[in-house]
Design a protein that fits this description.
alpha/beta, 2 domains, Rossmann fold, 10 helices, seven-stranded parallel β-sheet, UDP-galactose 4-epimerase, domain 1, globular, four-stranded mixed β-sheet
């Protein structure tokens, strides 16, 4: 299949690109490299461009593509509350520009990188796909807004789509060749491992008074390779004019302190903690029910244990302490 991947030089996108290339698909990565890394993808598949550059996007989409995988987005919850304009521009306006360009280029299917943040504060856990969607942060709202747009585009134009609602992606390629490298880094697992490497003094824990067993937020962590495999299955299942929505998680929740303790076991380092106030927009607990994708597409996580997820990330960070700069 011919697959056009926006944001494919980013963390999740680069792992999907790797599996696509290994499976023999023709791939083009469309990325402005504002957050992605050229070193994360094969040089021959990288096509540098911005979604807001209509001429460049049309050029990139020329040549016959069967499916778009759309990862390009801003994705920090805290920042989305401080600067929602950036999130609406990058996650909604740019995404609408993309599907408009897809229509002109005759590309009829899209796999969309959505988020568990679309649910807001869950009324039941694990969260199924038919759970109410009431985001409590701008990031989740912009992801939901584009999902709604996809539903209308499917009905009006025959677009086929899959919206994949991620929980917390973590880990790295098992051979430690590619991994997670954000600047600044805000995701828990790499932050914890930077402390283990001596690059930070302590892990900041934002809120210890949540209604959870140890007072810290609970999240469902999914290995990035398991996430990548789900994208390929979803791409193959898309039908014209129809939409698919799947949660992607392991169905097990780990608190912030629980993740830190697991990282201590994996790394053998003390990993000091510094307690701080809650962040705006953080729900207490997000844990997925992924029964639908398991049932409908035969997906099965290969790296479900939190220690295994952290171990693969630890190998990447030890061999690339400066990220792709190394």
């Amino acid at each position: 299949m011919n697959v056009f991947v926006t944001g494919g030089a980013g963390y999740i996108g680069s792992h999907v690109v790797r599996l696509l290339v290994e499976a023999g698909h023709r791939v083009r990565v469309y990325d402005n490299l504002s957050e992605g890394h050229a070193a994360a993808v094969p040089a021959e598949v990288l096509f540098r461009g911005d979604l807001m550059d209509g001429a460049r996007l049309a050029e990139g989409l020329a040549g016959g593509w069967d499916c778009v995988m759309h990862f390009a987005a801003s994705c920090a919850v805290g920042e989305s509350m401080e600067n929602p304009e950036k999130y609406y521009a990058n996650n909604v306006v740019a995404s609408l520009r993309l599907v408009s360009a897809m229509r002109k280029a005759g590309v009829g299917r899209i796999v969309f990188s959505s988020s568990a943040a679309t649910y807001g504060n869950p009324v039941k856990v694990p969260i199924p796909e038919d759970h109410p969607t009431l985001p409590i942060n701008a990031y989740g709202q912009t992801k939901l807004d584009f999902e709604v747009a996809l539903r209308y585009y499917a009905a009006a134009y025959g677009l086929g789509y899959a919206a994949l609602r991620y929980f917390n992606a973590a880990g790295a390629a098992p051979d430690a060749k590619i991994g997670e490298d954000h600047k600044p880094e805000t995701h828990l697992v790499p932050v914890v491992l930077q402390v283990a490497l001596g690059q930070r003094e302590a892990v900041s824990v934002f809120g210890t008074d949540y209604p959870t067993p140890d007072g810290t937020c609970v999240r469902d962590y999914i290995h990035v390779y398991d996430l990548a495999q789900a994208h390929i299955l979803a791409m193959q299942a898309i039908q014209p004019g129809k939409g698919l929505t799947f949660n992607l998680g392991n169905g097990a929740g780990y608190s912030v302190l629980g993740v830190i303790e697991a990282a201590r076991r994996v790394t053998g380092h003390a990993i000091p903690v510094k307690e701080g106030p809650r962040r705006a927009g953080d729900p207490p607990s997000l844990v997925a029910s992924s029964e639908r994708i398991i049932r409908d597409l035969g997906w099965k996580p290969q790296y479900p244990a939190i220690e295994t997820i952290i171990e693969t990330a630890w190998r990447w960070h030890k061999s690339h302490p400066g990220g792709y700069g190394d």
